[in-house]
Amino acid sequence: AQSVTQPDIHITVSEGASLELRCNYSYGATPYLFWYVQSPGQGLQLLLKYFSGDTLVQGIKGFEAEFKRSQSSFNLRKPSVHWSDAAEYFCAVGPRDGNEKLTFGTGTRLTIIP
Amino acid sequence: KAGVTQTPRYLIKTRGQQVTLSCSPISGHRSVSWYQQTPGQGLQFLFEYFSETQRNKGNFPGRFSGRQFSNSRSEMNVSTLELGDSALYLCASSGLAGVSEQYFGPGTRLTVT
Fold first, then answer.
1. Does any CB of chain A come closer than 8 Å to the CB of residue B60?
2. B18-27, pLDDT tens digit by residue?
């Protein structure tokens, strides 16, 4: 069965520091890969997605993620965080067979300190 | 283009009651998926509808049901509410590109007392 692991439940970084959120997945074949962000009381906003091609994917708000097939990982990075980046981040995988079901990780809560 | 809308945004119900939540997808999208988000279980897939037919179903009891109308709007119903049904219910709509083009609504916060 497919699964997504986000090993860090909570991360605290200083404003202006770099950020890396980890995501590992278990899947039969390379799935579609996503990162979503959720602010308190809000829905999910798509940051970026990987389907194929260049393994370094650029997203919105200055985020990027790198797909590493050998490590089954899709880590999210940002070179310099802003206070407004404080939120919960979810990694998700989706099948390539037309099935609409996304499988999510448990999320990483990001706190920014001044 | 308007995004995915969900109504109501907040709801308080009593154990044993039933509830209906509504989701209007992005114009032109024919697929609607529903997810439940709780602190303990995280985000879990409930079901997905496409052209008024349920195409996929998650591992939830039969108290959770849904339907989709000809205009692609979808409703989900939870009967005989339990305290554990308190959650944020998110719906997502997809266009022809499927899961690769899935957009989420703001959610309905259901509290069961």
1. no
2. 999 999 999 9
